[in-house]
Amino acid sequence: MKAANTRDTTSETPPRTRILVVGGGYVGMYTALRLQRKLKPELDRGDAEIVVVTPDPYMTYQPFLPEAAAGSISPRHVVVPLRRVLDRCTILIGEARSVDHAKRTATVVTLATEEEGAGAVELGYDELVLAPGSVSRTLPVPGLADFGIGFKTVEEAIGLRNHVIEQMDIASSTRDPAIRDAALTFVFVGGGYAGVEALAELEDMARYTSRYYHNVQPEDLKWILVEAAGRILPEVGADMGRYAVRELRARNIDVRLETRLESCEDRVAVLSDGSRFPTRTLVWTAGVKPAPVLAASDLPLDDRGRLVCTAHLSVEGADHAWAAGDAAAVPDVTSDVPGALCAPNAQHAVRQTKVLAENIVAALRGRPLTPYAHSYAGSVASLGLHKGVAHVYGRKLKGYPAWLMHRAYHLSRVPTFNRKARVLAEWTLSGLFKREIVSLGSLEHPRAEFETAAGGRPPGHGGPTARARPGTAKGTPPAGTPGALDAPEAAPPGEEPPRTGRDESADSSPDS
């Protein structure tokens, strides 16, 4: 092992090689997992350490978010606790704000630094793995920051489920037809995997839930999918994309292609074709962009803001820096097209982690590196319960076989045997018993009832128990979340705080 030259010289421990992994998603978790196995002798001797910096203490398997939103899978089983899996790594819950690779340091903000008021800390490293993933790509659409809902985290998925059922409660109890119509109108922007699968699963759930309302029928629900391109699900091919559109429209879902969202101010979605839809639910899934930490580094980026990488998954022109997944522009050595890059999808990310970890170990031990090479196998997508599309190894599937393949593939890819068994058990039970239709909206504000009883702040204004990401105000729901969408205004002095209309029961958050 090479000697570490970036450690604090005042430390009493001998220098050792520190591998810093930025990001605890699929790439970050699996890279760290393989590193702790491959470097077991060095870790035992204290010659190496692996530090994982991540905003959350768990990894989210995002392909299961639509099923978690629909209630087919418990949110606790969509996430993998990092401390349990990466038991030989140091897990630091925080956010890497910038990277100075010339000095081998990363600027990190944690929950502790905010409490201490000490500001960001500089964390030195010898080998850097950048796997921060991506964030939602938003556009300057008027009203989007105030009323839009994202769909990239398990919190957003469960919040959206609660929100949809809550809108049905509002529609069932109001006498105002305008309020009822807005509550039962659901607009999804983006025709990729996230948007189509989320809409399809939630439409299935809402249609089933309507049977328990005496005055809400399935035909009262209005679902609208807005896509700027001329087709949806481009990953499964043009034929399967057209089939998906036909299937969605057969379920009375309004699919609008070559259409953009122009505005959503005052809870009115205005589309580029002139249509206007009063709605209390606007879900934004129109693409992603690299995490901001990449732009705050001195490493080379391509025109899309991704790290320019070699086929060995090292950052081009930067020794001891590595990347994979959404953050990396990796050459596709299997393609006949000059300059072709690997698609930033889960299929490549899963396989890149193995090569990435092996190459880091090879570099530390002075062995030659292996290039990443994988031919694209195809794609699968769910269109709701027992419905799907697939284009795998040149074969096209639709309906039940495609849905079954979708579940089988993702069950094989979800990390750890523990999660595989739990997900399979829940799928089995959901096939035997009825869906759960309970809205647990108070999950976002667990202290609301107590604050009201104690004469404190009105419900919806957060509190000490509200969990804040590094760099955000405590107890303040970020713009674009379901919590921010329905936050009530403060009551005038001496008046009773307004009711939120949310179910005041509690739920448990994803385990850590």
UniProtKB/TrEMBL annotation:
Signal sequence, renumbered to the chain: none
SUPFAM superfamilies associated with the record: FAD/NAD(P)-binding domain (SSF51905)
UniProt feature, compositional bias: Basic and acidic residues: 496-505
Region (Disordered): 451-512
Keywords from the UniProt entry: FAD, Flavoprotein, NAD, Oxidoreductase
Pfam families xrefs: Pyr_redox_2 (PF07992)
Record domain FAD/NAD(P)-binding: where: 18-335
Family annotation (InterPro entries): FAD/NAD-bd_sf (IPR036188), FAD/NAD-binding_dom (IPR023753), NDH-2 (IPR045024)
Tree of life domain: Bacteria
Family in the record: Belongs to the NADH dehydrogenase family.
Protein name: NAD(P)/FAD-dependent oxidoreductase
Source species: Streptomyces zhihengii
